[in-house]
Amino acid sequence: MTNLLTVNYKQTGKSANLNDMGMREMQARAYEARHEQYLLLKAPPASGKSRALMFLALSKLHEQGLKKVIVAVPEMSIGGSFKDTQLTANGFFADWAVQPSYNLCIPGGEAQKVNTFVRFMSDPHATALVCTHATLRFAYQSLRPSDFNNVLLGIDEFHHASAGEENRLGELIDGVMAGSNAHIIAMTGSYFRGDAVPILLPEDEEKFTQVTYSYYEQLNGYKYLKSLGIGYHFYTRQYLDALPEVLDTSKKTIIHIPNVNSIESTKDKYSEVDYILDAIGEVVEKNMDTGIITVRDKKSGRLLKVADLVDDTPLRIEVQNYLRNITRADEMDIIIALGMAKEGFDWPWCEHVLTIGYRSSLTEIVQIIGRATRDCEGKAHAQFTNLIAQPDAEDDDVKVSVNNMLKAITVSLLMEQVLAPSVSFKPRSRMAPGEVAAPGTVIIDDTAAPVSDKVVKALENMDNIKAAILQTPQVIAPAVMGDPDPEVLGEVEIPKIVEKLYPDLEPSEVLTVSEAVHASLGIQSTGGLFDEADLPPDAEIMVPPGAEDTSATPSGTAADATGSGTGKTPVSAPDPNDPKPNRKFVLIGNKFVNIEHLNVDLIRQINPFQGAYEILSKAVTPAVLKAIQETVVGMRSQMSEEEAVILWPRIVEFRKEQGREPSATSGDQYERRLAEGLIYIKRKAQERKAQQAS
Length: 694
Fold this sequence. Notes:
- The protein contains 22 helices and 20 strands.
- The chain has 694 residues and is α/β, with parallel strands linked by helices.
- The chain has 4 domains: 17-213, Rossmann fold, CATH 3.40.50.300; 221-389, Rossmann fold (3-Layer(aba) Sandwich); 418-610, no CATH class; 638-694, no CATH class.
- The strands form 4 sheets. A 9-stranded mixed sheet has the order 1-8-15-14-9-13-12-11-10, with helices on both faces. It has a 6-stranded parallel sheet with strand order 4-3-5-6-2-7, sandwiched between helices. Strands 18-19-20 form a 3-stranded antiparallel sheet, with no helix packed on it.
- The radius of gyration is 27 Å and the shape is globular.
């Protein structure tokens, strides 16, 4: 098994510490925005979003004049996160309580729940209700948007909504926003989706104030968890044969078997569970009261407790109840699941999530990884392993497998972006006189032409832009082939995507956002930002040409993204004997660059996808890699005019050096791409000549 990504954390304890109101760092950040009517809270699993909503809801009920709060969760089991909670014990001014009659996350028919929901809306003594997304949707059909006046609507796992015509939850939110004065708090651990449908209409999304708490902040602030690995294991034939190689029974593990409709599935989910049990060891007994299976580990002889959530008989409810009431590590060892044990499932001792088969949804992968990233005493490392089929070079339908591999790599590249320390971008025009930017901030020098609010909003939504980029074949295909062109990426592909997501931006604004996204992709792919105090003793510092003539910005700030300074003080390489805790560095190649010296030319030296290609090229045989690359060629976009313009000087140079035109049948990928550009240019020239003649 090869890890594509391993991130180490500092165990600062900050994300778990409570302030004098009993709030964690993320919850306090959300509470600062409590007066906003529409709030979007983006924070990873286990960061405490449920309790954050309680704090916000109580403020709106007691201090802001709202009369009711409705909390909607995607499934009944997650409703338990909003049970009665004594918040005053840790310093808050009120406790969270839901009348039992208005807890609708219980077994029973939807018709009765809808009646109760409607009764709640007119009950003058009731203030809080918890229900599923489905109950909310059904009840909405019996109500008017204006019935939600003076109501706080809290939507947990907001990524289940979209602006698509078939998505009733997205339609409901749009209707409530347009037809009432309701407040909305939307919460998600993964705002980007695995498809191309936005969650909200652009005009509605602009109304939301975003509060973001990054994965890195969460994991870096833990007490016990020190590292997280994301890795892949490629198998041939059936995954069941490769399972013993990646299943470590000494680790608390969740195994997600493939969907029965996927190519990885044997189409018999029950037989797959039996095979997994045999791979673990000898089944000793199955408790018919709890549904828990005891298995003697064939490696160590230990008795392991295994939960089967694939079994969909009534006994599965007992298994779920058992898992919900676990209080000690020794009460469970391995969980086998199909569609369950993902979002909202809390088993803090989980160390390893082993997922079999490709997952095209970015959201699903984020949720699965979140099962292993709970902080827990005795757990120093969390691991996500994806066991995936190696494309068969001899298979006529190799394209399907390659497509799936692209999806897996897409997820890995995106996780590489969200798990590392975040890089923020701030326009200089938005800084107050004398303001010092936060550590790790790259300043965009827009003093000559200040950027608009639309640019600021786009920079705040950079995760969405990255998700779109990494799901674009024109970007990922060259990455898998090992020949991405940074110039084409920066000048053609990224601007196209930014322009599509934000059609109202001016061309200069598209360029500003594109350069920031390109910079962020590059920085995160090389390990994120490094504190000067943490640089290796033998770190080689590179000071770009011309940087000596620019100003040294105050400690904790950054020069603009184009590398231009504003003062006169010469800049020198940092003194290793006098490290500045706020000064940040980026790794480019094998050298470190102070972000105060960062510029576009340096950023474009970074291939943000190099790591993925290196892992892939080592993990599969040359024949399979060749089959993948040949398939990917067919997925690449047709030559665009923008790319042809960029390639033209290189075509001229090639012809001058080689004495011939580049060949479309060359064994060299770069030469073939030049040939494609030349063919495009010749065809366009012929079309123009024909038009002139006519």
